[in-house]
Design brief:
elongated; mainly alpha
């Protein structure tokens, strides 16, 4: 079980890190969308094609795509762990680690955040994960 807990924490760390990095890629995508103009009146087909084009544009931004695929790889690992561990332990540990890692990696990447609140919340998350593991 201890080896599984380490895997759960590792998945949470990967998810948290890639969430923060994908946010940067999504901001680049948002800037690219704002720089293009779209006609105000469109048919349903044009709206669908425009959405598909926007999605492909997002996937063409490597700052989003690379962490996205790493994130998906961690999801596969999560489901493999979930197949042989209790859901009542796997989900809280992995999700709590993800929340904490997203906050920490966001701060490391220079996102504006309330450092005191983020560190306090992260400390509470670590305490909660420890309580789940020690059960």
């Amino acid at each position: 079980m201890i080896g599984d807990v380490e895997k759960m924490v590792a998945v949470g760390l990967v998810w948290g890190a890639t969430n923060a990095i994908m946010r940067r890629g999504a901001l680049l995508w948002d800037q690219a969308l704002k720089s293009t103009s779209t006609p105000p009146q469109q048919s349903h087909l044009h709206k669908i094609l425009a959405s598909l084009k926007n999605w492909l544009t997002l996937l063409s931004i490597w700052q989003y795509t690379v962490p996205f695929f790493i994130n998906l790889s961690a999801s596969v690992t999560f489901f493999a762990i979930l197949s042989h561990t209790p859901i009542s332990l796997t989900v809280p540990v992995t999700n709590a680690t993800t929340f904490a890692a997203t906050a920490v990696f966001g701060m490391l990447l220079g996102e504006e955040t309330r450092v005191g609140h983020a560190l306090f919340g992260t400390g509470l998350i670590v305490l909660g994960v420890w309580l789940c593991i020690m059960k």
